[in-house]
Amino acid sequence: MSSFNSYLKNGLQLFWSLAYALKRGRTVGKIKQVRKIIVAQTAKLGDMVCTTPVLRAIKKNMPEAHLSVVGLKNNRFVLDHSALIDEFIDYDGSIPKLTDIARRFDVGILVTPNFKILSAFYLSGMPMIVAPRVKNGFSPYETMAYKALSFLVTTRPHYMGRYAPREYLRLLEPLGIFTDSTVKSLGFSSNAGYKIKDLLTKAGFVPAEDLLVGVAVSTNNKIKQWPLEKFVEVISYLHEEYNAKVILTGSQNDETAIKHVLSCLRGNGWFLGSWQLNLDELKALISKLSLFISVDSGPIYIAEAFNIPTIDIVGPMDEAEQPPRGGLNEVVILPDRKGPELHIMNARHYNYEEARRQIEEITPAMVNEKIDQICSKLNFK
């Protein structure tokens, strides 16, 4: 019944949008002056971090424009202290509320397909709207209603299988902004910095001297969860081979998993668990690390934004689309994988058994090999 109600509501919303189109027509022209821009990114933490190159490019090329982001409430704290935006608007799914807010903007940019947000932007009378059209694959987010309404606005292609942060930058081309820079940017408060400095000092960890490794052993998306006993093996290897100091990171939702891993470790003074930090403090902690290891989830993109070397246990994700890139960013995938099961634009429709195989059959030895490669480059022995 809830699915039927959702289809009915979307159908009615599309009807009102198309009815308004008889009066308004298409919004594909250029505007003379851009004073206020709103960027919509309603995906989760990692996707918001990967949207920061779009925000950087706008701020660099249009510094006088007021830049707002609408997204999930928790992502407000991702962008806090980044100096990338002027305003964050919490998205609660209400089309009338967002339509009213959108009336004060000149340009609206959708980073990913979202019919409700596209409809709200169009009904607001916003002069310019730029939205993605998915190419080279299927996306369940690009619904029939979204496709119908997208013909009334300016669109740019988003190619699946290509690097998503670069694809997002295509959305800026109608504003005359052309760039290849996918550098991510984040910040944290001075209070968070002081708290983390105190935490590390009390633990006896010295970032400038120790190989300080952060490990996220749990993830909200359980399809990507790597077995905890394998994390234990990797963490033990870090200590035995490199005398690393290890911090297990996570939120309160990860407390049980972190405590289980801690209970399996031996010795004292070289590891600790941290699941009571807020997002501001987590950013500050990750910025002090020598290396960060996790499955493909939000924290690894925080590490990338602070130029921290990473090992991304990709599992079923497409390694070409979003994992951190660079000489000190490694990915771990099964060598016999015919293709990834999950994509940035399609994380709903997949073969569950194959997706789990692609993460569960990754061995600790595969991860340890990447640790050796990065530690060699960092001259840790």
List its salient traits.
Rossmann fold, six-stranded parallel beta sheet, alpha/beta, 15 helices, 2 domains
Summarize the main sheet: 6 strands, parallel
Indicate the overall shape. globular
Radius of gyration, whole Å: 22 Å
The CATH class assignment of the largest domain is Alpha Beta
> Strands of the largest sheet, in order across it?
3-2-1-4-5-6
Question: Which stretches are poorly predicted, pLDDT < 50 over at least 5 residues?
Answer: none
Report the sheet-strand fraction. 15-25%
Tell me the number of structural domains. Answer: 2
Mean pLDDT: 93
Q: Based on the structure, what is the oligomeric state of the protein chains?
A: single chain
Number of helices: 15
State the distance separating the first and last CA atoms. 60 Å
The helix content, as a percent range, equals 25-40%
| CATH architectural arrangement of the largest domain | 3-Layer(aba) Sandwich
- What structural class do you assign from the helix and strand content? alpha/beta
CATH fold category name of the largest domain = Rossmann fold
SS elements, strand count: 12
